[in-house]
Amino acid sequence: MKFKLRLPTWFLMLFSILLLLIFLKINLFGPGFDLLNTSSKGKKSKFTILIEVDKKRLSLIDRENEKVLDTYAVATGKSSSPTPLGSFKVIEKAQWGEGFGSRWIGLDVPWGIYGIHGTNQPGSIGGNVSAGCIRMRNMDVEDLYDKISINTPVLITNGDYGPFGSGFRTLKPGDRGADVLEVQKRLWKLGYYDSELDGIYGDGMKKGLVDFLRSKNLELTDRIDEAIYRELGIILMD
Question: How far is CA 236 from CA 163, 188, 225, 226, in A?
């Protein structure tokens, strides 16, 4: 006597849906994607980190209540390796150790690897001493690390002129920074630059500058000083 197993229709439908989800997971998202547990990278942080280079101060701001929750003393970059200015976001949280102290908070700066981290030289806090990163006392960076998440916005300022900090600097090939990025954007808008907007003064930017100067019948140079900023239409307003 043969025994035939008959499964309920609802069970077959549920089983089919599960198979479809597994197929989508593997073929569309990859084996590491969890359909039921989204990553913290997709979450929107309610905090903003404000770093004022000229004041050597980092503030954690609650955007929902528009309140400063905490302030910390920091060290910033040397004049030869300035801290990047502009709007960024947190893309990494790690514990690198050694010279980076007890915590590392990486930022999405397009022209290099920069972050907020601890230090094994606490006496340097308050100075312009780093290669561009923002240093904090270990206990302070640990406190900040625990409060913020991936994608937390970070605004870094240094004076009254946004990406130009406290004023123009003369740019030359090899320079990096928010001011370089602004010049790239202006050359791109004028039709003289079609390379990556990365804040790095490379060959593409040099060519764009020379082409711009030639079109204006100006002396050809690879240096960008106040006169050339003015020709580009970049003027600092008090």
Answer: 11, 20, 13, 10
